[in-house]
């Protein structure tokens, strides 16, 4: 099987490219995704290859972009809409949570659309260009949500999202774009939506996480192994809706100690739901209270110093793991 | 880089074109000085960005100085101003301290947002400068809100609101225009049409290219002016602001202008969406030397005065950078303190 070393963003591009080659109903729309190639260049070269009917530069109007995507999906198309930054999805909230999310429920008609949401902090973007807004949508039945952490998953999940008959929000972390590389098979594979992945096997503590913090967890797990001989398992959720309950409970039951990590704010985040599931269904197996590590409950500060203080980090994961190990 | 102004005869004799506006020589010189300050401040911000002293996203106002300066000079101190994310120039035109602006760009505790915001978050409540917003178009209804407040409270202050032409494609722009016209609010919307929203030209993004005509749907007063000419900017905005003050009627103005730099620091000056020739052609009507030459020709400025002004501004900008550089980082425990009042 042939594969290539790709960055995370190249893997996303590759997945979209393959799906566009495969299915003429797939088209892209968003602000400056054509000649400009997108703010982060995820669609560089697409216009030249697929033409302007399928790589559509929109005007600056997120509500119209998302609403038109719902309509196009109703007409049998498979739109892949890019929000330039996930923060800007705020301007199109109604289209997602009311129109996209409830159409199948009300009318039994599928809405096969994908919304790509470049998210996350760590690039000094300040309050309006750093959000991780997945929890807003997590609460709305009818939307699927994925958040890959590796190039392999990025390609497999964008392809699965495009083929899914439901609206799928695809959260891609901006800091991973060019910082994370990995082998990506050339062939046409999918990563099933709703399936978590054990990124590292372990027996003493589970870290349950997704997106950018998967990498911090993996590095921290290695440090604990080296320094303390503690065996840390890292479960990458990959999909947030549907959430892989079996995988979460299996890992919690296996190790009996759980640390949940995400970059989004703590309160009301995905981690709260994961913690509740474990408390509800794996309580007897726990050897320590469930621990959560997330961004502080404030907007994202611009100051690089404070941003570092605000965000989870490898060091913070290590400390939290050591506390759990001692318990 | 010092400005050397050519002494060649302007094509039309416009020496007295500002007479009817009742502007004094001192005011005219002040217009020029403010534009020059913005230009030099922004050039320096670009350099500091290159040195990684400034991070994140940073949008420069170079090329559009005449719009902000002319418009803001037409205001009273109790009038409100809203800007978008290309906001350093508006903040400087309003008289915000360059040190505080630079410190915010550096993410320091002495910045106007205590380093929490950065480039897109300039703010000075003491000057009714209401910011600085990073979500395109998102601030436009806030301007209707302050105008509503002024009217309700029986004050005769006016609100002006700057935004780019791409922002006029957001639904909230239309929602706000309708509301301002219906409620008769003292607000002037100033669309800085610099021809591009990132890499998208006006012609590719608007069904109607004359942005000011969008007000016709709301039966609102409207017009456009040469945004490369500070006098025209002053003239147009003054008339609209006076009208708003007297009759509580809103206006939509379109400033026809041009940005000389890339959209943000990562965007090259020219590339796939505009040619080098186009940018060079536009630079021929660079608002700063254009006005400087006019003042020189009218005998209001001398080359010596221009040189002195350059030196003074250089010191101001140097001091702003020094101040920013030496200022403390925001302390970690500050983070949680400001979320609620
Ligand atoms: C809601 C929203 N969508 C997209 C963006 C990204 N973005 C920032 S500026 C910009 C272009 C805006 O152009 P215009 O309004 O003409 O202002 P200019 O940059 O020309 O001053 C875009 C697409 C954003 N900040 N907010
Ligand atoms: Mg513009």
Describe this structure in words.
The complex is a heterodimer of chains A (327) and B (341). Helices cover 38% and strands 21% of the residues of chain A. By secondary structure, chain A is of the alpha/beta class. Chain A folds into two domains: 3-185, Thiamin diphosphate (ThDP)-binding fold, Pyr/PP domains (Rossmann fold), CATH 3.40.50.970; 197-326, 3-Layer(aba) Sandwich (Rossmann fold). In chain A, the strands form three sheets. In chain A, strands 3-2-4-5-7-6-12 form a seven-stranded mixed sheet, sandwiched between helices. In chain A, helix 8 packs across helix 9 (270-281). Chain A is globular. The model of chain A has no long low-confidence stretch (mean pLDDT 98). By secondary structure, chain B is of the alpha/beta class. Chain B has a five-stranded parallel sheet with strand order 1-2-3-7-6, sandwiched between helices. Chain B has a two-stranded antiparallel ribbon with strand order 4-5. In chain B, helix 1 (25-50) packs across helix 2 and helix 1 (25-50) packs antiparallel against helix 10. The longest helix of chain B has 26 residues, at 25-50. The radius of gyration of chain B is 20 Å and the shape is globular. The chains are: A alpha/beta (327), B alpha/beta (341). Thiamine diphosphate (TPP) sits between chains B (86, 134-136, 164-167, 194, 196-198, 263) and A (31, 60, 62, 84, 88, 91).
Strand order of the largest sheet of chain A: 3-2-4-5-7-6-12
What is the CATH superfamily label of the largest domain in chain A?
Thiamin diphosphate (ThDP)-binding fold, Pyr/PP domains
Strand order of the largest sheet of chain B: 1-2-3-7-6
In the CATH hierarchy, the architecture of chain B is: 3-Layer(aba) Sandwich
If you average the pLDDT of chain A, what whole number results?
98
Compute the number of strand runs of chain A: 14
Order of helices and strands of chain B: HHEHHHEHEEEHEHEHHHH
Text of the CATH class of the largest domain in chain A: Alpha Beta
CATH homologous superfamily of chain B - what is it? Thiamin diphosphate (ThDP)-binding fold, Pyr/PP domains
Average pLDDT rating of chain B: 94
